[in-house]
Write a structure and sequence with these properties.
The complex is a heterodimer. By secondary structure, chain A is mainly beta. Chain A contains no helices and twelve strands. Helices cover 0% and strands 50% of the residues of chain A. In chain A, a hairpin with a 4-residue loop joins strand 8 and strand 9. The radius of gyration of chain A is 14 Å and the shape is globular. The mean pLDDT of chain A is 92. By secondary structure, chain B is mainly β. Chain B has no helices and twelve strands. In chain B, strands 2, 5, 6, 7, 10, 11 and 12 form a seven-stranded mixed β-sheet that branches. In chain B, strands 3-9-8 form a three-stranded antiparallel β-sheet, with no helix packed on it. Chain B has a two-stranded antiparallel ribbon with strand order 1-4. The model of chain B has no long low-confidence stretch (mean pLDDT 92). The chains are: A mainly beta, B mainly beta. At the A-B interface, strand 5, strand 6 and strand 11 of A face strand 5, strand 6, strand 10 and strand 11 of B.
Chain lengths: 113, 114
C-alpha cells in the first residue's frame, strides 16, 4: 500500500531564513509526487509536481523540491521564507491510474518575525 | 484555468439527515474524487470516479455513497449523517492528458453535524 510520511507536524522558521520540509513516501511503482499548500479556510493549491526527468523541480512562489529515489524522499525547499508562506503543507503520492492521491498528514509552517 | 466548484462552503445538518455535497468541474476531466480532511489526519480518500456512472471506494467509504450521472458533476451522499462525519470535505478532479496531468481541488465544504 502506498503511504506518505511528513515527520514534522509543526515547523517554526524566522522570516528570511531558509526552509526545508521533509517528505518520505512508499509506492510500488514509479511515483507521481506533489506538494500542496493550504491557507486557513482555503482549498489546496499546487506548488509543484514531479513525474519524471530532472529530479530538481521548480514550483510557484519560489519553492523547489528534489526527488531522491534512493531515499524515497521528495523534500520541499525555499531559500528565504516570507510571512505569507505561513500555511499547512501537504506532500502527496500517486500513480497514473484512476485512483487518487495519498496524502501525508501535513506540516504546519509558522513564520516568526 | 480549471475550476472545481463545491456548492456550499459551510453546512450544518442534524444527526440522521441525508446530506448531499455537490461538486462540479468545468474542464471535461475524466476523474473526480472526494476527500475528507481532519486535523492531524491529513486528507483521506472517500470515493473516486473514473467515468460517468462508475465509482470506486477509497480508503474510508463507510457511511458514504456517491453519484456521477454526468461527467462534470460528482456528488457525495451521507445516507444518515452522524456527528463523526463533521469534517472538511474536498472535491478534486483530474485530467490524464500528458503534461497537463494533475489534480485541481475545490475550496471545500465544512460540514457540521449536530
Amino acid at each position: 500500500a502506498q503511504s506518505v510520511t511528513q515527520p514534522d507536524i509543526h515547523i517554526t522558521v524566522s522570516e528570511g531564513a531558509s526552509l526545508e520540509l521533509r517528505c518520505n513516501y512508499s509506492y510500488g511503482a514509479t511515483p507521481y509526487l506533489f506538494w500542496y499548500v493550504q491557507s486557513p479556510g482555503q482549498g489546496l493549491q499546487l506548488l509543484l509536481k514531479y513525474f519524471s526527468g530532472d529530479t530538481l523541480v521548480q514550483g510557484i512562489k519560489g519553492f523547489e523540491a528534489e526527488f531522491k529515489r534512493s531515499q524515497s524522499s521528495f523534500n520541499l525547499r525555499k531559500p528565504s521564507v516570507h510571512w505569507s508562506d505561513a500555511a499547512e503543507y501537504f506532500c502527496a503520492v500517486g500513480g497514473g491510474g484512476a485512483d487518487g492521491l495519498t496524502f501525508g498528514k501535513g506540516t504546519h509552517l509558522i513564520i516568526q518575525p | 484555468d480549471v475550476k472545481v466548484t463545491q456548492s456550499s462552503r459551510y453546512l450544518v445538518k442534524r444527526t440522521g439527515e441525508k446530506v448531499f455535497l455537490e461538486c462540479v468541474q468545468d474542464m471535461d476531466h475524466e476523474n473526480m474524487f472526494w476527500y475528507r480532511q481532519d486535523p492531524g489526519l491529513g486528507l483521506r480518500l472517500i470515493y473516486f470516479s473514473y467515468d460517468v456512472k462508475m465509482k470506486e471506494k477509497g480508503d474510508i467509504p463507510e457511511g458514504y455513497s456517491v453519484s456521477r450521472e454526468k461527467k462534470e458533476r460528482f456528488s457525495l451522499i451521507l445516507e444518515s449523517a452522524s456527528t463523526n462525519q463533521t469534517s472538511m470535505y474536498l472535491c478534486a478532479s483530474r485530467t490524464n492528458r500528458g503534461v497537463n496531468y494533475g489534480y485541481t481541488f475545490g475550496s471545500g465544504t465544512r460540514l457540521t453535524v449536530v
